[in-house]
UniProtKB/TrEMBL annotation:
Keywords: ATP-binding, DNA replication, DNA-binding, Helicase, Hydrolase, Isomerase, Metal-binding, Nucleotide-binding, Primosome, Zinc. Binds 2 zinc ions per subunit. It catalyses: ATP + H2O = ADP + phosphate + H(+); Couples ATP hydrolysis with the unwinding of duplex DNA by translocating in the 3'-5' direction. This is Replication restart protein PriA. Component of the replication restart primosome. GO terms for cellular component: primosome complex. It comes from the Bacteria.
Amino acid sequence: MFAEVIVDIKSSNTDRVYTYKIPEGMKLEVGMRVSVPFKNRFIEGYVISITEQTSYPVDKIKDIHKILDNYSVFDEKMIELAKWMKDYYKCYFSEALQTIMPVGIKRGEKKVKIVRINISEIPDELCKRAPKQYEVLHYLQKRSPIRLSELVKILNIDYAIIKSLQKKGYIKVYEEEIHRYSVKDIERSQPLVLKEEQEKAVTEVKKSMEKDVFEKYLLFGVTGSGKTEVYLQLIDECIKSGKSAIVLVPEISLTPQTIERFVSRFGNKVAVIHSGLSPGERFDEWRKVKNGVVDVVVGVRNAVFAPFKNLGLIIIDEEHETTYKQSDMRPKYNAKEVAEKRCELENAVLVMASATPSLETYYKATKGEYKLLRLTKRINVSMPHIEVVNMSDELARGNTSIFSRKLFSYIKENLQKKEQTILFLNRRGYSSFVSCRDCGYVPKCPNCDISLTYHFEDKRLVCHYCGYQEAMRDTCPKCGSKRIRYLGIGTERVENDIKKFFPKARVLRMDVDTTKKKGSHEKIFYDFRSGKADILIGTQMISKGFDIPNVTLVGVILADITLNLPDFRSSERTFQLLTQVAGRAGRGEKPGRVVIQTYEEDHYSIIASKYQNYVRFYNEEIKYREIFRYPPFSHLMNIVISGEEEEEVKNIAANVYLMCQKIVNKLQNKSYNKILGPAPAPIRKINNRYRWQVILKSEDRNVLVDIAEKVQTMKYPKNIRISVDIDPLNIM
Ligand SMILES: Nc1ncnc2c1ncn2[C@@H]1O[C@H](COP(=O)(O)OP(=O)(O)OP(=O)(O)O)[C@@H](O)[C@H]1O
Ligand SMILES: [Zn+2]
Ligand SMILES: [Zn+2]
């Protein structure tokens, strides 16, 4: 018997199937991790099939060295999925398999020592004779069982003390396989009686699940329309029919509140995968799925690979979110596409959901590729009332503050009424940059081509790309002037001004700077929900998953920040963000108000947000996409060439460009193809590396895949890095 093995070496010449002999008696299965001999050493490999025959000369074939785990990591469908990823994203087979595999698998199963008290009363004489032992037992009376390591640490004791207590039979020490992460006991919730539109959606998807066929849905439901309850009831149906379900959510909406909603319905049948888990913890969750301990996984991007044997349903919440794409690492996969492929392989049902679907998804729904399900109404409450304020008018009337008169008076009213307010601004720090009033000098990051952001609290200038910091100076380093100007605003500035105008208001801020510590995100959320603050200021972290009834006012300090990014999706992003943020207002009995401040009140993104009208936005935006042939009317590919010498980077970018052109010119089919560049990337330098890019647009994705393959197998000087992203969501 022979095994076909993919080896763990990342290069294009080893990216193929190797054949090994299975030694007599070895119980090898497809999908196992193995160690194999490879050029004088042993390396890791993955068995993708087992055959009886081979065309290789048998005497030249080496034996599998050993099996690494006592189970198979990939089933055949997962191997199939990896094959698809390798071809679709142009990565190595081993990279695709390793993406599917849980990080942490290499550590193996984790067993810990547990200590349990074995007597009901502590012998009196122990107190005098062995006070340390007494202390341990005394502690165990309150807390037993406990991990040995924890006990030793808390009481600062020697292991010998445990040994002697164990010998006397006062305690028991045993090994236990632990699941490092466990969901707390949360009160169980019952299914709600569905509203008409919810009922319709559930019934329809249920029908597909019963038929065991691959089907795709777009659940297009306004904010607060009860999408989550639809998910819960679909999952329930799925479990009842003996199958399992995956729910993907973006990291920022994986809030305690969201987790609570799933756990309260399905109890310990749920595993949660968030990015804060350690590799070991991730592996634990993976094993729970593998061993059939849970039926539901709620998690971020890579939860799409949860190894259920009988998958019935994948739900993708907030499907428009860009975090479903892995942009920073190979393979640059999109969990939405992987989910679709996985459902196809498993005959499962895919439900993508959003209040603001991505243009691509909605376009597919209009073409019938996804079945459209709609939730048009909020549950029991009405949509918030939205007003747009033009900040140029405010300036013209002499108001130079960051708050319009309207927003200011609403904040004041809300404070009086003891109702809560959310203020949103998608930029952290105090001001986006500082400049000298006399010579115009702007401090920039020495490593990146980007101006430094001023952070008021610690009086420092910070680079938001590489983290570089320097102290803010009182004088201009170029001309010595003391007249420093603060331009552009950030969340810290908003907090500062709120405190200035409303000194009695209790304020919380939620952004990258205030949530660095583990658990701080949760704390801010709970403090705000329980009414410990009147105003919450935040970046897009607060735009999702917040369902707080007492929030009746949402203020968008400046909508233009995302609108002006050099990206063809900036209008879409702005509309999505504004709709999501506005959706946080008036979710309880009291009606909600939203004030959007902007300098561009006539922009269709802002107008559509004002009327909360997705279709209006879509109809406008899709016209631009068609005229300029952007997705969904084409596929893009971004090739970034980076290196330390800009001249060299520029030359290689030119070579890449020429090669792309050659390939396109030779094409037989007359699809639309366009090559843009070579040009410096919008962020020209990051971490001391210069970046140039070539962007391709094509109607035919296969053309891009071909080019990707050629570009990636070309030879480059040592310091040059090439990054290829097909269907990128970010081209900065
Ligand atoms: N059928 C129902 N009957 C009563 N209450 C419901 C029903 N369905 C949902 N709700 C409640 O309505 C509120 C809004 O629902 P939910 O949060 O599920 O909406 P959503 O569409 O997921 O919102 P968003 O996309 O804005 O986060 C929740 O408090 C939920 O418990
Ligand atoms: Zn100056
Ligand atoms: Zn930097």
